[in-house]
Amino acid sequence: MLLERLQDVIVAPATPGGRSALAIVRVSGPKTLRMCDQIFKGRKRLIGARGHQLLNGFIVEGEEIVDEALAAVYRAPHSYTTEDTVEFSLHGNPLIVERVTDLLIGIGARLARPGEFTERAFLHGRLDVTQAEAVLATIEARTLKGIKAALAQLRGDLAKELEGLSDRVRWLLTLLQAQLEFPEEDIQEESLEPMLEELIADTKRLERAFRRGRSQRKGLAVMILGRPNVGKSTLFNALLGEERSIVTPVPGTTRDLVTGTLRLPTGQVRLFDGAGIGIAESLPDQCAVRRAIGAVNRADFLLVILDATSGFVPADAELLKLLRKKPGMIVWNKTDAVKEVPSLENVSGEPIGISALKRKNLSPLLDRLKEEASSQGETFFANRFQEERLEHLAVHLRSALDAQYLDMRAKELREALADVTGTDRSALDQRILEEIFSRFCVGK
Ligand SMILES: Nc1nc2c(ncn2[C@@H]2O[C@H](COP(=O)(O)OP(=O)(O)OP(=O)(O)O)[C@@H](O)[C@H]2O)c(=O)[nH]1
Ligand SMILES: [Mg+2]
Question: All domains of the chain, ordered by start, with CATH?
Answer without folding.
Answer: 2-126 (3.30.1360.120), 135-214+383-435 (1.20.120.430), 219-373 (3.40.50.300)
